[in-house]
Amino acid sequence: MAENRRILITGAAGRVGTFLRTGLAELGWTIRGFDLVMPEDPGSARWFIGDIGDPAALDAAMRDTDVVVHLAAIPVEDRFERILKTNIDGTYQVFDAAVRAGVPRVLAASSNHAVGYYECADYRDTPIGVDVLPRPDTFYGVSKAFMESIGSYYADRHGLRVACVRIGSCFAEPRSRRMLDTWLSPGDATRLFHALATAPDLRYEIVYGISANKTAWWDLENARRLGYDPQDDSDIFAERIEAAATVDADPTDPEYRYLGGRFTTILPPE
What we know:
This protein is α/β, with parallel strands linked by helices. The protein has a single domain (6-265), classed as NAD(P)-binding Rossmann-like Domain (Rossmann fold). Helix content is 36%, strand content 16%. The chain has nine helices and nine strands. It has helices at residues 15-26, 55-62, 80-101, 139-158, 177-182, 186-198, 221-225, 238-244, 254-257, and strands spanning 6-10, 30-35, 46-49, 67-70, 105-111, 161-167, 169-170, 183-184, 204-209. The strands form two sheets. The chain has a seven-stranded parallel beta sheet with strand order 3-2-1-4-5-6-9, sandwiched between helices. The longest helix is centred in the middle third of the chain and has 22 residues, at 80-101. It starts with 5 loop residues before the first strand and ends in a 13-residue tail after the last helix.
């Protein structure tokens, strides 16, 4: 149990934020939600409405907080100036506010798109680890590589305990062949962030955020060492997804060739 400790989730009204604020509350965490809007079902969370670019709003939300889960971001490719404002400067603001408030631990949602240009075929037999250099596939991916770097800086300079989670595809169920490899179930998302929030030996880590999928491309060793014990496997959905597929998977299709999938073909909007 979390012993009634307080956890602030930025982007708490989003899909992953909703999974986490629901699941973590069931594990005993006192939830604080921070977002631009309040969801239709706010649950038991205490809500702070604001922008992560607003230091005063962050200061108010982080007061007497034990852990910050930073999810707030533009979650897709966009113009660089928008990514810069929300994903890059916003992430800086969150880390800096955590230091001002004396919050000891920040768990930040990175992405597989920080390493999106690695080719899947190279990691079918030996899953990719966290020791590879970033190869972002979009400005969005660049912002996640920045997140990992600034997290390392704040860990070393200010002594924050930091984990950056390269989340795969966090949905209630996998929706495609690709998601059989990249799926993170809501239950395992809760288990992962709970483990990172309570791991006594966390200093700075990058971990992959996926379930125990038989066909996973990513190595879960670091996450398991910190206490993550995934319980779900996308394989239970494989027969249905394969039966619904209209064509065979083409290994030259960017969706299956690269870890970042079709993000490698997306251009920012005009």
